[in-house]
Amino acid sequence: MSADLDSNNIHVSSSLGNSDNLHQQVLASFPLCDITEEDLTQNPQFCKLLATLAQHVNQTGLTVPLKTELEKAEQKLQSQRHHWLRSESLYRGLQEMIQDHCVRKQHASVPADQNMFVETMEKCLLVAQCVKQLDPSSTTNPDQPLVLGLTPQQVMELMPPEKNVQIMKESLPRELEKHLKKKCLSVLSFYQPESENESEGLKTSKLSYLSARLDKEKKSAESLKDTCRENTVLLQRQTQLYLSELIKCIQLLQSLILNNRLKVQTELDRKKLDYFEGKCELLSQKIKLEMVEVQLDTYPTETISAHKKIREKLESERKACQVEKQSLELKLASFEILGKEFETLAEEYYRLRQEIEMKNWALKEFTQYNDM
């Protein structure tokens, strides 16, 4: 076994050295695997393993011995299926003959011999079916009680007379052939509707090769189905490659758009800023101009200059008051830190100051009246 593997490795190595389409060969050997040529290129050892494995298994992943056993099992299953289908077709054909006879009896009179033939066949089928149900097989329990207490021998006693059975057996091939021919003609009419108006001999001639033609078309349909399956796998692989390449292109396009947009956006923002700055400056100058015009329309030039001086003086006083206010607020904040005791002293100090001012005013008034 090791010698075989070594020889296979040598063969694979020679393939790697001599063939440029090893990846395509591996992909063709394993069509059901979800791998791409890029995967094989990135993993050369894995590619060698698949190439070696392809010499021992087929495209479905089965080895040669297992494939042989599977073919034998399929042949055996096909033989048993053919045998069962033949028996089942015969049984259903007989059942259809019985149903057709019942339908004809409802619409018209039926000859006595035909009626006896069908009744005998129906009884024989029913007895045979009951015997088959009552006959114990190797898979059933031998101690299992019989259905309704009946044995196959008791059911066989219900068979029609031997004479009628013999007549039925003699007529059965002919009647069954007529029924099957009728069904075949129905199939031919469905398959080739134009054959409805043809002669009986021509229809019979077409029936002789209808089976071969249907089999040929079936094989053709299966071949087309296999081709469609292979094309589906190939399409899926190509779709994956296409999507991967498309994603790369989209990412590249996004990066280009983002970079260009950032550059353009920066330049656009700078121009907008310059525009708004110029517009703001223009509006400011326009407002100043309007204010000057309003002043000139309202006051003379001397009054305007006086107003400016007054405004400047008031503005300086306002600023001085603002500074004094801030200073007093700071002092007040520092006093508030001392608590309620200092607040009581401050109130007492304020009260004393008021009394002193009142007494000074009274003293001043008194002194003024004395001088008079």
TrEMBL record:
InterPro entries from the UniProt entry: HAUS4, HAUS4_met
One Gene Ontology term of the molecular function aspect: microtubule minus-end binding
Gene Ontology cellular component annotations, sorted alphabetically: HAUS complex
Pfam families linked to this entry: HAUS4
Gene Ontology biological process terms, A to Z: centrosome cycle; spindle assembly
Protein name: HAUS augmin-like complex subunit 4
Lineage start: Eukaryota, Metazoa, Chordata, Craniata, Vertebrata
